[in-house]
Amino acid sequence: MSAATPMLQIKNLCVNYGAIEALKNVDIDVYPGEIVTLIGANGAGKSTVLRAISRIVSVRSGDMSYEGNDLLKLRPDVVVKQGIAHVPEGRRVLSRLTVEDNLNLGAYVRHDNAAIHADLEQQFERFPRLKERRKQLAGTLSGGEQQMLAIARALMSRPRLLLLDEPSLGLAPIIVLEIFRIIRELNQQDGVTVLLVEQNAHLALQTAARGYVLEAGKIAFHDDTSRLIDDERVKRAYMG
Amino acid sequence: MELTTLLQQLINGLSIGSVYAIFALGYTLIFSILGIINFAHGAVFTMGAYFTYALIGSRFGFNGIFANAQLPFGLPFPLALIAGGVLAGLVGVLIERTTFRPLRRRGADPLLTLVSSLGMAVALVNLIQYFVGAEAYSYPSSVLAGLPPSINFGTPEKPLIVRTVQIVIAIISLIILVGLTLFINKTKTGRALRAVSEDGTTASLLGINTDRLIVLTFFISGFVGGIAGTLVGLSVTITGPYFGIAFGLKGLAVIVLGGMGNIPGAVLGGLVIGIAENLLPASAVAYKDAIAFAILFIVLLVRPQGILGRAQITKV
After folding, report:
1. Which chain A positions have a beta carbon within 8 Å of B190's beta carbon?
2. Using a CB-CB distance cutoff of 8 angstroms, which residues of chain B are in contact with residue A157?
3. pLDDT at residue number A193
């Protein structure tokens, strides 16, 4: 990407879980308007990067800035107000609340009620399945519907940066394709910048412009995805 | 039992049961959010009763720092009831700050927090004794001035007499129950509370300041606890600093019976225990408290999760 300053800049990020070093000196840049993917094996620390950005795990050392603000000074709820939305691993919809309540909670940081209502209708247009089930408890939805709800809920905060953690996890291939079509559409039509964590490296590299490969808590290498797709190391390790 | 007596006891049972319900809601709200029983809730109940007692301008007794002390003014009872509830709510916030938050910050085991709240309960009870002594206090009968002491719902030949205070208690409790239910189910803040109760981390990711909602929960819990204390004090008498402790045990029975962390469960549990106690024959009234726990014991044998509780599902 050609834009001069990164929207999100992570430098020397270190995160520990007790005595275990989950992330070691991780550097990641995300420029406005791009889709960047973070691939790696199970347990490499991909989710931890996203959780550090959202400030729900504590950071041992390093720097993180977002649109010029020091993320490390912000509480998790303030991060959302700054325009970062996080779709967590395993979707984490609020199962005892209705679909509509989940979506409204996505707009918790906003106070422009009329616009929130319009956005709700827009999400229903994008995800017609959710509209049919708007009064249903979120826990009764199928996996694919829950993933759609989790994404729609994140969009309700009108994010400029969307953090997606394993959106394909446990879903049927046809649903995965649909979800990734929507991710591309959000990026291209609505200009949402995306940081995508995925185990399905092939799909992730096809979707993103640049990719980082995380191995045992360290960035092993990074490049444009067009080159990563043909990279022998990536092929061997992540694409079978 | 004669029909009129039965009806009379049913009304008395509904009245005390509704107080059990709002008191138990104080436990339930905190439990549903933190997964911890706040053992200091009984002490907050007691403090609410004393606050209202002081605010209506009554004089304290012979012992304690506040012996013979009296506020230079007296609020009308409805105002004092609300102000006493607000003060009790602030005590709840203080408990959160001193007893819950420091341990939560360190990621302590819930069992430790539970013991910490038990310690707080003992400290508060002793504090009450230090300030106002251990004697019993009764609200002056003038608080319900303008209302007759009892109302006959029957005919002169077949009287169905209910103490006015029981009706006042039932109405106030009902208003609180309805208000709280609407707040939790219909408002934005209530929705956020439900989110925090189901999954605190996800709530944070949605931009909800969980700490602030926890403080709010402790305030509401203290508020309803304090009001319940005043209402029971009004119905019987404030029996001393330990007033809320025995009541607190019964409150626990109520929430376990109804289903932990479940708001309709707390209400149902309160009403069941309140009515059951009052339907006892006069000869068995001394065993009233045993009834609450016997019902609890039997229900738990059949339904370990409580009447309206969800079966435990382990989160993955």
Report:
1. none
2. 206-207
3. 98
Q: How many CB pairs under 8 A join A and B?
A: 61
Burial A102-117, CB ≥16 within 10 A → b, else e? bbbbbbbbbeeeeebe
For every residue of B141-162, DSSP letters joined together read GGGGTTS-SEEE-S-SSS--EE
Which tokens go with A172?
A: 């049927």
**Cβ–Cβ of A77/B201 closer than 8 Å?**
no
Tens of pLDDT along B59-87? 998 888 888 888 999 999 999 999 999 99
Query: Residue A1 has what pLDDT?
Result: 47
Residues 6+ apart with CB under 8 A from A43: none
Indicate whether B314 pLDDT > 70: no
CA distance B35 to A23: 31
Report whether pLDDT(B311) > 70: no
Identify the residue whose tokens are 């934005």. B188
Q: Write out chain A residues lying below 8 Å of B207, CB-based.
A: 76-77, 79-81, 108-109, 157
> For residues A127 and A68, what is the distance between their CA atoms, to the nearest angstrom?
34
d(CA B15, CA B162): 10
d(C-alpha A223, C-alpha A204), whole Å: 13
Q: Do B205 and A96 touch (CB under 8 A)?
A: no
For tokens 């616009």, what's the residue? A115
Q: Is A170 on the interface with B (CB under 8 A)?
A: no
Could you give the angle at which helices B3-34 and B263-278 cross, rounded to 10 degrees?
Answer: 150
Q: How far apart are CA B8 and CA B31, in angstroms?
A: 34
Torsion sign over Cα B196, B201, B205, B209:
positive
- CATH of segment(s) B3-302: 1.10.3470
* Token pair belonging to B92: 């709840």
Is the pLDDT at B233 greater than 70, yes or no?
yes
Q: Both tokens of residue B303?
A: 């339904």
Q: What is the pLDDT of residue B1?
A: 64
Instruction: Spell out which residues of chain B touch residue A77, defining contact as CB-CB under 8 Å.
Output: 204, 207-210
Q: Residue B316: its pLDDT value, please?
A: 42
Which residues of chain B neighbour A109 with C-beta distances below 8 Å? Answer: 206-207
CATH architecture of residue range(s) A33-55+79-238: 3-Layer(aba) Sandwich (3.40)
List Cα–Cα distances, A236 to A185, A211, B279, in angstroms.
30, 16, 76
Confidence of residue B51 (pLDDT cuts 50, 70, 90): very high
**A108 contact B CB<8A:** yes
A169 interfaces chain B, CB cutoff of 8 Å: no
3-state secondary structure of A217: coil
How many angstroms separate the CA of residue A94 from the nearest CA in chain B?
Answer: 7
Q: What is the pLDDT of residue A9?
A: 97
| Residue numbers in chain A where pLDDT is lower than 50 | 1
Q: Give the pTM.
A: 0.91
Mean pLDDT rounded to a whole number for chain B: 90
Q: What tokens appear for B154 in the block? A: 């029957």
